[in-house]
Amino acid sequence: MKKYLFATAMALCLGTSAQAEGTLNLYVWADSISPALIEKFSKENDVKVNVDGYTSNEDLLTKLQAGSSGYDIATPSQHFLRVMIDQGLLENYGANKLASYGNIDERWRNQWWDENQEYSIPLAYGTAGFAVNISLYKGPTDSFKYFFEPEGELKGKIAMLSYPDEVIGAAQLYLGVPFCTEDQAEMKKVLDLLMAQKPSVAAYSSDNIATRLSSGEVSAHFWWDGEELKNRTGGAPLAFAMTKEGLVGWLDSMVIPKGAPNQANAIKFIEFMSTPENATEQMNFYAHSSPMKLVQDKVKYTKEMAPELYPDVPVQFSRTCSPAAQDLVTRVWTQLLQ
Predict the structure, then answer these.
(1) Residue 191 and residue 256: Cα distance in Å, rounded?
(2) Alpha helix locations (H) across the chain?
(3) What is the CATH topology of the domain spanning 2-125+250-298?
(4) How far apart (Å, rounded) are the C-alpha atoms in residues 144 and 241?
(5) CA–CA dist 177, 335 (Å, integer)
(6) Which of helix, strand or coil describes residue 129?
(7) Which residues, listed in sequence order, are joined to residue 222 by a DSSP beta bridge?
(8) CA dihedral sign of residues 302, 111, 66, 57
(9) What would the DSSP string read from start to end of 224-255?
(10) Digits of tens for pLDDT over the chain (338 positions)?
(11) Can you identify the CATH homologous superfamily of domain 127-249+307-337?
């Protein structure tokens, strides 16, 4: 029996080693990584890169909590990154000792979601708010009032995301309710606002947003800055609202899930994506802001071309909430969708 167990263990080790030489499995935000960069990395390192996509931090967290995901890199947003570190779901790969660390814009280093920068290297950041089809809606967009309390041509013609994460945050900004509040009365205000809005909501969906908005199915949709930007510069009649109450901020980072089978290749990929040249290519593809040092004369989305990425209103980043506060968010969303 001992010989059998030893032989089995050796076979598993050899199998993992062989796999690590030429494979990398990514589980990242859908359509977020430049295909050109994936191809370039694959050729330079003789590594087969497999990419799966998700559309919510909640989906990623559930996958990692289940264990043995088989993924080597994921890209959670800052507040979920903190949760994943606290729950022991990520590898400490000594990110602060990599060349990548030196390429991070200083304002994004050692933030509260990874104080010692041991578990993550940032990839992209941006904001969430609402976008409008300007051929259908020509009214004001300088407040969340027009989205959460729609009137006239917006009645019945708005859409939300399918998850509460940034939507609840935007409602809190509008109402002046603190993020991560544990006050039930304050969260009752959020629920009342969303319930009053509900008759005007055509869909609660995080999929096919560009089609829904550009086709005229809806006139306004909760969305992300870079996604609106890509479609606007592609010819769609869209605009991203700069709401005076502020926007909800997010920052996604490259992490290595616990027990990832190809950790050496994961670190190679993180280093590869973090060079100024490749970070610039990634920003030009993704159309979200980069937290890395860039080759400035090669940046496509300048302030003149992409004002969405350079907001002149306050930006408040989603926080990691206490269990009590998170439970209130879940309860509000559950009641809303009943």
Answers:
(1) 36
(2) 2-22, 35-45, 57-66, 78-86, 99-102, 145-148, 165-175, 184-197, 209-214, 225-233, 263-273, 276-286, 323-337
(3) D-Maltodextrin-Binding Protein; domain 2 (3.40.190)
(4) 9
(5) 19
(6) strand
(7) 130
(8) negative
(9) EHHHHHHHHHTT--EEE---TT-EEEEEEEEB
(10) 333 333 333 333 333 333 446 999 999 999 999 999 999 999 999 999 999 999 889 999 999 999 878 999 999 999 999 999 999 999 999 999 999 999 999 999 999 999 999 999 999 999 999 999 999 999 999 999 999 999 989 999 999 999 998 999 999 999 999 999 999 999 999 999 999 999 999 999 999 999 999 999 999 999 999 999 999 999 999 999 999 999 999 999 999 999 999 999 999 999 999 999 999 999 999 999 999 999 999 999 999 999 999 999 999 999 999 999 999 999 999 999 99
(11) Periplasmic binding protein-like II (3.40.190.10)
Whether the predicted model's global pTM rises above the 0.85 cut: yes
Check: CB of residue 207 under 8 Å from CB of residue 164.
no
How far apart are the C-alpha atoms of 44 and 240, rounded to whole Å? Answer: 38
Helix (H) or strand (E) holding 74: strand 73-74
Expressed in percent and rounded to 5, the helix, strand and coil fractions of the chain are 45, 20, 35
Q: Is 202 exposed, middle or buried (0-12, 13-18, 19+ CB in 10 A)?
A: middle
Domain segments of the chain: what residues?
2-125+250-298, 127-249+307-337
Residue position matching structure tokens 């973090």: 274
117: its two tokens: 């920068």
Q: Helix axis angle, 57-66 relative to 78-86, nearest 10°?
A: 20
Q: How distant, in Å, are the alpha carbons of 140, 145, 158, 159, 336 from that of 151?
A: 11, 10, 11, 14, 20
Cα Rg of the chain (Å, integer): 21
